[in-house]
Amino acid sequence: MNANIKKIISALTESESGKKQMEIWDWFQGVALYGLYLYYEKTRDKEVFDYLTGWFDKQIAGGEPIWNVNSLSPLLTLTFLYEETKKEEYLARCERGVKYAMEELLRTEEGGFQHVTHAAKKIVVCSRFRRSSGFAVENGQIKLVDGVEDKFVKEVECIAFNAPYFRSLGKKIVYITERCVLELGDDGLVLTEITPGLHPLYSVLQYIPFPVKVAPRLRYMPTVCFDPLTKSAQKKEG
Fold this sequence. Notes:
The protein is of the alpha/beta class.
C-alpha cells in the first residue's frame, strides 16, 4: 500500500503532467494537497511536508488567486500547515479566504454559495426536460417517455444559479436536455436545437409556461447523441 501511495505522490509531484496540473491554485489542487497532507500526517514524511510548504510559499509569493468557491479548496490544507509552522503569511491567506467566503462570495437569496468559477466563458446546464422524462426502446422502436412533472416553471423557491446575472458578465448560457437545446438570449430563452423526430410545439414549447423563441434556423441535435438508443433498438428488432 505504501509503495502504491508513493507512486501516486511521485506522479503528482515529479512528472511533467503532474507539475503542470499543480501550477495553479484551484479545486483540483486543493483536493490533491489535502490528500498529501493526510499522508504526511500519518507518516511524518519530511519530503511530502517540504513539498506542501514549498507549494504554498510559491503560490503566496505569486499574489492572490482569483477567488471563487472552487479556489477556497486549498485553504483546508493551509490551515493545518499554519498550525504546524505558525507562518504569518499562511494565516493571512486563510483569513483573506474566509473574508471572501463570508463577505464577497456570490450567494443565493437563502445564503447558499453560487458555484460558478471565474474562467467559464460558457456555462452549460444539463438536465432532463421533465422529471423522469427521456427515451425508451420498446419492440425495437424508440419511444418518448413523457415524464411526470415540469422542470420549466414560472416561479421557484430558491435561485441556485442566476443565469441573467452571469449572462450580463458576458457568459454564454446553454441548457441541454434530451429533447432540445435552449440558449439564454437578450429577451429570454431561445430554442436552438431539437431531437430529430420531435415537434417544437408539441414536444417542447407546450411544456414551458412562458414565452420561448424559436431560432430562425432550428437545428436537429447531433444523431451521435442517440447512437446508444439506435443500436439498442436495432439489436432488439434483429
